[in-house]
Here is the input.
Amino acid sequence: MIQAVIFDLDGVIVDTAHYHFLAWKRLAKELGIDFTEHDNEQLKGVSRMRSLDIILELGNLRLSQEEMERLAVKKNQWFVEYIMAMKPDEIFHGVKELIREIRSRGMKVALASSSKNAETVLNLLSIKNYFDVIVDGTMIKHSKPDPEIFLQAAAKLNIPPVNCLVFEDAEAGVAAAVAAGMKCVGVGSSELLGKANVVIKKTGDFTMDQLLTLN
Ligand code: B16
Ligand code: MG
Here is the structure.
């Protein structure tokens, strides 16, 4: 039985994934590296430093740790600049209603985002109080595809992993949910998220009937 639903943030609740892409693309351009939306799929759900590693690998570039940290700070400044203009109505259609419905059926709701900016985003969207538990990139050692973030959310909710359902838009995130022993709804393309139990196009498309079939 599903007793808790754990939501990823970027790409599941709001399109911050696009702002991450814009900031990384800007950085890649400065470094003379060609970086496409297709390449960006590998960055979804993984940590800031791992994302930078992937971009440097794409450009066959090796930099010192110090230089990498400087670039990661720069990318984050751009990302924060982009999201600051975000308004509460940028939350994906139907997400608030879905969370309310889940809670009204007695299930718990958590947020599990690899982002160190998750709290800022939740505040900008005015949705912090929609979650019983929040785990973000500042609280974990290993980012997705490691299951740590989801296991931590389940432990804080006091619900066994097997009774948790995760919503994820990233390949790394689906892998993390599966590794945590949880059920998973993939949000996006079924080609990329095939390891999820079910794949939907948009979070707001999900229905309670679908949830019941996953029990
Ligand atoms: P930050 P999620 C992830 O958030 C993003 O998908 C990923 O692209 C990003 O690199 C990561 O957060 C770290 O973000 O640089 O803000 O700490 O999808 O797990 O909500
Ligand atoms: Mg995501």
About this structure: Residues 16-83 form a domain with the DNA polymerase; domain 1 fold (CATH 1.10.150.240).
